[in-house]
Structures are given as C-alpha cells and as structure tokens.
Amino acid sequence: MSAARPLTTLRTLAVIAALPLLLTACGYGSKSTDDGKQTPAAAAGAKKLSVDEVKIGYFPNLTHATALVGVQEGLFQKELGGTTIKPSTFNAGPSEIEALNAGSIDIGWIGPSPSINGYTKSDGKNLRIIGGSASGGVKLVVNPKKIKSLKDVKGKKIATPQLGNTQDVAFLNWIADQGWKVDAESGKGDVSVVRTDNKITPDAYKSVSIDGAWVPEPTASKLVAEGGKVLLDESTLWPDKKFVITNIIVSQKFLKAHPDVVEAVLRGSVKTNAWINANPDEAKAAANKALEKLSGKALPAAVIDPAWKSVQFTDDPLASTLNTEAEHAVKAGLLEKPDLKGIYDLTLLNKVLKAEGKSEIDEAGLGAE
What we know:
By secondary structure, this protein is α/β, with parallel strands linked by helices. Helices cover 38% and strands 17% of the residues. Helix 6 links the parallel strand 7 and strand 8 (192-195). The longest helix is centred in the C-terminal third of the chain and has 20 residues, at 259-278. It is globular. The termini are close together. Residues 1-31 have low confidence and may be disordered.
C-alpha cells in the first residue's frame, strides 16, 4: 500500500518523548516501566497458549483504565491461562510505538495520533488496531477570571500536552473552526498554544503562566481542583459525544504468529470493560489502586471522581472518528494526507463479541484486506 510520510512536525514527537514520567495524557514523555511484579501469576498447571509470555504496554492514566483494571484484577491473566502477562507502562506514544517495533511489547493501549503516526511511518507494516478501549475524557479548562466565554480564548495562552499529539491536534482544529489562525509548529498566532508536559501543567496554571489547557483526564480535573473552570468538553464536538481517545494495537508479526494469545487479551479487555461499566465505583477504586502502585500516590476524590465520570469505556475503536482525527491533523498542517486502509483488523474482536452475545463492530472501510 502507499501510506504518506508524516511531516517533520510529527517526527519531533520522538524527540519530545524524552520527557519524564507522568500520570496523564496520551502520548507524552518516554519513560517505560516493567510492572511484572504487580501482575497476578499464571495459575499453576494452567494450559499455556502458543507463547509462554505476552508483553503488553499502556499508560498510567485513567483513559487507559481498561489495562490498569484488567491487570490489577487479574482479568487478563484469567483468559491467558498458563501464558504469563508481562506489563510495561509508558508515557509517550512514540516510545510505545518504538517498543512495539522492537518487540519489547506485543500489544499496547495507545491514543489515535501515535497509532496513525506509527502506521503511516512504517507504510502500514508494523501495527494493526484490534479494538477500542476508551472515549472522551478531554476538556478545555480555563482561568475563569481571564476567560468567561469561548470567544475570550483568543489572545490567551492555552496549554496542550505535546506538539502534534491527540489533544494538540484537536485544539488546533477547534481554533481553525473559530476562524482564528495559529502556526501549528510554533504555536504562535491568535491563540498562544503552549506545549506543556501534563505533569507540570497544574503548576503552570497556578503560577499564571498559562490561562488554560486542552487536556485529558485526570489533568483536567486537577486544574478544576486548582480553581479552573471547564469551558468545553471535547465530547460535545463529536457525533453522539463519542471519539476515540484510547485503542488497542498489536504488532502485525505477533498477530500473525499468535492469534490465540491476541484473542485471549481481547477477551480479557471485553470482560474488563463490561465489569468496569457494571461496577463503576469498584472499577474506579481498582484503577486508583493501580495508579498508586505505579506512582506511589493515589488520586484524591476531588480529582478522580469527576475525571472518572467523563471517560467512557468501550470495545468499539470508533473507527470513523480516527479517520476524522487524521483529517484534523492534515488540516492543521501536521500530517500529509495518509492512507489508513488496513489500519484496523477487528476479526478477533468481533469473534469475541459474538461469543459474548454482543454486536459486531464496523471498521469504517479501514479494515485490512
């Protein structure tokens, strides 16, 4: 296939991927952590699948709660039987894609922009999106003393997590829809787009060096806890208020060699999402417990309670919204028009869903041949 090459702006993500560990966002920082010691051991005597171990990657934040909860509660391990699950956490889309390419992980939870970048930069040869995980959980939070309405955003300093990341693209697209102009790479224009590590965004807000931020949870709720006001929930800009924020990817090599293992992980993901949606309070506590293990500190109720409510957990990767997000990146000048045909392979997901008595999911014309 012929996939377009991302522009230099997107390639800078690999450089920005040297940021330190943080608890938020989708595609920032670079540090990865082997969390194998926190994983339930495979049951003694349980039958192994076609491989002894499956290596999964995800981020330590609420939009990746399917992975956090599934590992924490042993729901993935239950489906894998005697095959051991080895988790690693990342804080950068680029570093997780690099790990997938290097074979350091086999399956990952990751945001749409890194998925698109990884797929196009490899000419469609390195990964497939095989399932959904989360929708929503992104907000524009502002200083209510400086910004009282959407039109007041003009002329202000608004943070996004990283140049070219999912939230950065969404904000640039929203700015364009207002008729305002901003140079995508420098962030200068009618609005000053300040790329800021989510770990320090709350401090930047407190020091008044930014006037607001377009950020995912729980950073958005951390800003609200500091006196910020939610001016816009990104979900209101999308049909049915749904858009992909986290999906599941797999190495094409691993998918071809070990479909039974991929199916088991997807079965664990589907069952985890069902448990999360049926038991939101217990699931929230499990996610916070997992975060506490990873960071040494749980999120306070004032942060996790509103943050948790704004994220929807879904098996549907919302393929049509991925295509729209790619169009937004092209419109912003951050991406050459990509050929995303083949980025999805939902065959195993639909097999799992059918077995669970659930409806199959459409690939929006972007499935593999």
